[in-house]
From TrEMBL:
<dbReference type="GO" id="GO:0006004">
    <property type="term" value="P:fucose metabolic process"/>
</dbReference>
<keyword id="KW-0328">Glycosyltransferase</keyword>
<dbReference type="Pfam" id="PF10250">
    <property type="entry name" value="O-FucT"/>
</dbReference>
<keyword id="KW-0294">Fucose metabolism</keyword>
<dbReference type="InterPro" id="IPR039922">
    <property type="entry name" value="POFUT1"/>
</dbReference>
<keyword id="KW-0119">Carbohydrate metabolism</keyword>
<dbReference type="GO" id="GO:0046922">
    <property type="term" value="F:peptide-O-fucosyltransferase activity"/>
</dbReference>
<keyword id="KW-1015">Disulfide bond</keyword>
<keyword id="KW-0256">Endoplasmic reticulum</keyword>
<keyword id="KW-0914">Notch signaling pathway</keyword>
<dbReference type="InterPro" id="IPR019378">
    <property type="entry name" value="GDP-Fuc_O-FucTrfase"/>
</dbReference>
<comment type="similarity">
    <text>Belongs to the glycosyltransferase 65 family.</text>
</comment>
<dbReference type="GO" id="GO:0005783">
    <property type="term" value="C:endoplasmic reticulum"/>
</dbReference>
<keyword id="KW-0808">Transferase</keyword>
<dbReference type="GO" id="GO:0007219">
    <property type="term" value="P:Notch signaling pathway"/>
</dbReference>
<keyword id="KW-0325">Glycoprotein</keyword>
<protein>
    <recommendedName>
        <fullName>GDP-fucose protein O-fucosyltransferase 1</fullName>
        <ecNumber>2.4.1.221</ecNumber>
    </recommendedName>
</protein>
Length: 416
C-alpha cells in the first residue's frame, strides 16, 4: 500500500511537469500547439443579412477554401438585438469535427490568438474586395472594411482596427477551373481577408450538398429539447412551419409585383425540386408572401398526408408573431395543438406568456420536425430544408407554401 501511494504521488508530479512544459511550448513554438497551414488562410466578415444568408454564404466560402486548399477561419454568427450587434461563436451552434472531415477549419478566436501572431502580423494585413466601397474618403478607391455595421463591429471585436491597403480581386467568385489562378496570384499572401463572404448569394449549387457537414452542437440539441419540454410537446410528432410575413419580408416580396423575376433569394430550392423551366417562368408573389387561406390549406394538407403517424402539434417559427393569423388557423384546425412563439392554442384554450425561441432553436426544431413546410424564397427555410435533404434524408416530408403554383400543369393553365 505504501509503495502504491508513493507511485501515485510520483505520477501526479510527472503529469504536472509535462503540462508545464506543454504550456511553455505553446508560448514559444506555435508549430507544436497550433499547426500552421503552409497554404494559408481565408478569413471574412459574414456581413450580409441574418442567419439564413450567413449560413448560405458559409457553404460557398467553405467550397472556396477547399478549391484554394487554404484553411477556412470560421467566423461567429452575427446577431442583431435591440439595434446592437452581437456575436455567437461558430462552435456554439455547430460541431467542428464533421466540417474537418471535408476541409481544414479553425475558429476565428483560435486563429487570432494562436496563429495570427505568426502568419498575419498587423503590418501584413490587407483587405480584399471586388470593388471600392463607399467610405469617408471616396476620392481614394478603398474596400473601406470598417465602414458601416456590422463591418466595423465585426473587425473591431477581434481587435482588427487597421489594414495596410485594399486589394481589388477578380473574378468575383472562384470556380474550380479558376483555383490555380487564385493560388498563383495570391501565393505571397498567407491570409486572404475579405470584406464580405467570398461566395455568391444565393450560393453556388455545388456548395449546397456541403450542408451535410453542418451538425448542430450538443448545446443546441439540449437547448431545443428543453424548449420542447417547456412548450409541452416532447415526444409528440409535429409539423414544423416556417412563416415569413413581417413587414420587411413583405416589402422584399413586393419586388415580384414590380418586376417579372424567375429567381429571388433562395427560390432555387423550389425551382429545382419541382423541375421548373426558367425560360418561361415568372416567380409568383404568393410563393413569397402567402395569404392566410394558402397557409391554412397547406397546413391542413400536410396533416392529412401523413398516414403512418398522427401529427398532434403544429410548431410555428416566424419573423412576426401575429396572433390574428394564429387565431384564424386555430379556428379552422381546432383539433390540433398550435404552438406559436408566445402562445399555445389547444382546442378552446389559449395560453399566453411563453418566451419566443432563439432563431437557432427554431432552425433545429424545423430541421427535426416530422413534416416541414417552409417559404420557397427564404434562406432560413432553405437551411432547414437542406439539413433534411442532405443530412437526415427527410426529403419526402418537406413542402413549401403555395408550391402547387410550380407544378407544370398549373403553370400552363395560368398562361392560357
Amino acid at each position: 500500500m505504501c509503495l502504491g501511494s508513493k507511485m501515485s504521488i510520483f505520477d501526479s508530479w510527472f503529469i504536472m511537469i509535462i503540462r508545464v512544459l506543454l504550456i511553455f511550448c505553446c508560448f514559444n513554438s506555435l508549430s507544436i500547439c497550433s499547426k500552421v497551414d503552409g497554404n494559408g488562410y481565408i478569413i471574412y466578415c459574414p456581413c450580409m443579412g441574418r442567419f439564413g444568408n450567413q449560413a448560405e454564404q458559409f457553404l460557398g466560402s467553405l467550397l472556396f477554401a477547399k478549391y484554394l486548399d487554404r484553411t477556412l477561419v470560421l467566423p461567429p454568427f452575427i446577431e442583431y438585438r435591440n439595434y446592437q450587434v452581437e456575436f455567437s461563436p461558430f462552435d456554439k451552434f455547430f460541431k467542428l469535427e464533421p466540417l474537418k472531415q471535408y476541409h481544414k477549419v479553425v475558429l476565428i478566436e483560435d486563429f487570432m490568438t494562436n496563429i495570427a501572431p505568426k502568419v498575419w502580423l498587423e503590418n501584413e494585413r490587407f483587405i480584399l474586395c471586388y470593388g471600392p466601397r463607399k467610405g469617408d474618403n471616396d476620392q481614394i478607391p478603398d474596400c473601406n472594411p470598417f465602414d458601416g455595421s456590422p463591418f466595423k463591429p465585426f473587425w473591431h471585436h477581434f481587435n482588427i482596427t487597421r489594414f495596410q491597403s485594399s486589394i481589388f480581386h477578380q473574378p468575383l467568385i472562384t470556380q474550380f477551373n479558376e483555383a490555380e489562378f487564385w493560388k498563383e496570384r495570391y501565393k505571397d499572401l498567407k491570409t486572404l481577408a475579405f470584406v464580405g463572404a467570398p461566395s455568391s448569394f444565393p450560393t453556388n449549387q455545388e456548395a449546397i450538398p456541403l450542408q451535410k457537414y453542418l451538425h448542430f452542437s450538443d448545446f443546441i440539441a439540449d437547448s431545443a429539447a428543453r424548449y420542447r419540454e417547456a412548450r409541452g410537446f416532447t415526444g409528440k410528432p409535429y409539423l414544423g412551419v416556417h412563416l415569413r410575413h413581417g413587414s420587411d419580408w413583405i416589402k422584399a416580396c413586393s419586388l415580384l409585383k414590380e418586376n417579372e423575376m424567375n429567381q429571388l433569394f433562395s427560390s432555387d430550392q423550389c425551382i429545382q425540386r419541382y423541375g421548373v423551366d426558367l425560360k418561361e417562368f415568372k416567380l409568383p408573389y404568393e410563393l413569397c408572401s402567402h395569404s392566410v387561406d394558402t397557409i391554412i390549406e397547406d397546413i391542413n394538407r400536410a396533416l392529412t398526408e401523413v398516414n403512418n403517424q398522427k401529427l398532434e402539434v403544429v410548431y410555428i417559427a416566424t419573423d412576426y408573431d401575429d396572433h390574428s393569423v394564429w387565431q384564424k388557423i386555430h379556428k379552422k384546425l381546432p383539433e390540433v395543438t398550435l404552438i406559436t412563439p408566445t402562445a399555445t392554442y389547444i382546442k378552446n384554450n389559449i395560453t399566453r406568456g411563453y418566451n419566443q425561441a432563439h432563431y437557432i432553436i427554431d432552425t433545429y426544431l424545423l430541421s427535426y420536425s416530422n413534416y416541414f413546410i417552409g417559404n420557397c424564397v427564404s434562406s432560413f427555410s432553405a437551411f432547414a430544408s437542406r439539413i433534411r435533404l442532405h443530412s437526415f434524408h427527410f426529403d419526402k416530408t418537406t413542402h413549401f407554401f403555395a408550391s402547387d403554383l410550380l407544378h407544370t400543369e398549373k403553370l400552363l393553365k395560368d398562361e392560357l
